[in-house]
Amino acid sequence: MTLKSTIAAALAATMIAGMAMPAQAQISERTIRVSNGVAEDHPVGDGIAAMQQCFDERTGGAWTLNAFWSSALGDDLQATQALRSGTQEMVVTSTSPIVGIVPALGVFDLPFLFANEQEADAVLDGEFGQYISDMMPEANLINLAFWENGFRNLTNSVRPVESLEDFEGMRVRVMQNNIFLDTFQTLGTNATPMAFGEVFTALETGAIDAQENPYVTIDTSQFYEVQDYLSNTRHAYTPFMVLFSKPIWDSYSAEEQQILVECAEIGRDVQREASRALSNESLARIQEAGMQVNDIPEEEMAEIREAVQGVYERNAETIGQEVIDRMMAALEEVRAQ
After folding, report:
1. pLDDT tens digit string along 143-169?
2. Strand-pair partners of 190
3. Where in the chain is the domain with CATH 3.40.190.170?
């Protein structure tokens, strides 16, 4: 049974049992702590604000969403572990830092998976997204919705990347994630796992040549001060997940659980719209700051995509072949429409 159908069944039973009770009887006063690694002016902030407005309307002001920004409660992995133990309610985290908890999430790290945002939305909001969400309770987590982190692109201080050969020997910072490491090693770079907080200084001192992130992160981190080139590789789309603590979730009424899901989905729509608008603004600012931006010719992109196909095979056992097969089937269905 899916998360939504479980809520619906429980809610129906609750409504039958409490038909004579006041309308707000199943809603308690609550303060919900939510943490994330981004700053408040990131599009995640727009999503959080939309969730709070939804809570106000649905609970009559009984719920307060208390947001902590820029890893104030620990990084995304630490926060996710706090959810699992029931000591924190909610976190908005990229899928990549928590693949050690749910290995199937590594499917989102596979290179060149989605062609555009519309494909990503259709897959994440459809049956495949629900398939992933249904895995989370085993890890003591509830996924309320998929939000957007965005497509990742490469910046560097060596040369524009216009072909597969241009990657050769470049010292690229990657997330501490085996699939990203495999991808960039396969492309011929000297891939270097590194915590995000160390990246600007490493670029500034020349310890590394390059890094990869969405436009908004490149802009807000001011990487244009220490990087000359931005190449539109769009090599990965790693979504955010709005995760809730299952131990705390289990203490909520069915009505409260439904409010959490529905308000997270309202926040999703606002956050994605804000993310895409800000992404375009960030790209313009990056160019105004003097960074040289280039697209990669389609024939060269085809060669780059072909070069990393082995990454899918080498990581299939860790991710799960069934997970990859389901993802590819979902993409095929979306592309056929």
Report:
1. 999 999 999 999 999 999 999 999 999
2. 171
3. 3-149+238-279, 151-237+284-336
Topology, domain 3-149+238-279: D-Maltodextrin-Binding Protein; domain 2 (3.40.190)
Q: What is the largest CA-CA distance in the chain?
A: 71
Sign of torsion over alpha carbons 190, 194, 197, 198 = negative
Residue given tokens 């899918």 in the structure block:
312
CATH superfamily of 151-237+284-336: Bacterial extracellular solute-binding protein, family 7 (3.40.190.170)
> Residue 133's closest CA among 275, 265, 315, 259?
265
For residue range 328-337, list pLDDT tens digits in order.
999 999 999 9
Which amino acid appears at position 95 of this protein? T
Q: List the structure tokens of 55.
A: 């809570």
Pairing mode, strands 90-94 and 190-193: unpaired
The alpha carbon of 264 is separated from its chain's Cα centroid by a whole number of angstroms, namely 14
> What is the distance of C-alpha 139 from the center of its chain?
18
Model confidence at 200: pLDDT above 80: yes
Cα gap 25→60, rounded to integer Å: 12
CB atoms within 10 A of CB 101: 17
In angstroms, rounded to a whole number, what is the distance separating the alpha carbons of residues 181 and 331?
24
